[in-house]
Each structure stands twice: as structure tokens, then as C-alpha cells.
Hints:
Blueprint: E1 5-7, H1 14-20, E2 29-38, E3 44-50, E4 54-56, E5 60-65, H2 68-77, E6 79-86, E7 89-103, E8 106-120, E9 129-131, H3 136-139, H4 142-158
Antiparallel strand pairs: 1-8, 2-3, 2-6, 2-9, 4-5, 5-8, 6-7, 7-8
Amino acid sequence: MSGPAATDRGEVPARVRDAVAGVPEVGTLDDAFLLLTVDAQGRVDVCLLSRTEVETTPSSLRVVVAGRKARRNLRATGRATFVAVTDDAAHYLALRVLRVLEDDGAIGAELEVERDLLDDLGVELHPIRFRVAENLAVEERWDRTRRLLARLASEDVAS
């Protein structure tokens, strides 16, 4: 096994882009991703995201966060770490907040990749997964999520 290998290339790795692409289907097991933030006292907050709440560009992630602590931490520090597990590797993306939009108790954030750490263990790994319940889209307010991600994408095109 080897430890994490860092690159400062500022790109979203293809395996991460592939992992977050698509839409979860009801009844299936779907991957979940970690968004780690830190508060002013250095305490880590973990926010679990589905791929519904994440989009990628070549150099950034767009995420929708409803958790109160994660929203506060993103605004206060302007930093986060995104964790995705794919096949035999874990990807840790060090992120910097570029911009934040608000909508009805959630934020949409554009996060620039500053550093990509690849932890290529050489052993089979399995991502965190959840069963996509029929009512999840309503409970998690995926309509709001789609609205925020669309606003982030349209404002990106406009600039």
C-alpha cells in the first residue's frame, strides 16, 4: 500500500467526475460523498452529499449544502475537503470557495480544486452507499438542489 499522492493541478479527476455523474434511481444503492468543513475552533464537520447535490466542471465542484454547520463553516473559512471513493482509490479534493448562492435554507457553492490527493491503496475499496428511498427527492428537496445548481451553472456561463 502507498500513501496519498498529491497534485496541485487544480483539476477534478476523471474518476471523481464519473462518480458524481448521473441521477440516483429509486430502490438502488447509490454512492454518498463526504464534504468536510472546519469551524473557527478547528472542529471538523461532516456533510454527507448524494450525487444529486454535486456537479463538476473541469476545475471545480458545485455543491448544494443544507446543513447549518457546513453552511456556516464554508462561509467562515472558505475551505472544504471533498472525499470520493472509487474502485481501489480514495480521492481527497482540497477546495476553496469561489462563490455562494442562497435559496430557501440551503446554499449552492462553487468550489475550486486547489489540491488533489489520490490515496491509491492497491486494495478493493467500497464507497459509502445509501438506499434511494421513494420519498427522498421530496424530503431532501431535490427541486431546490436543481434550482441552485442551475443558477450556479447559468451565472458561470454569464461571467
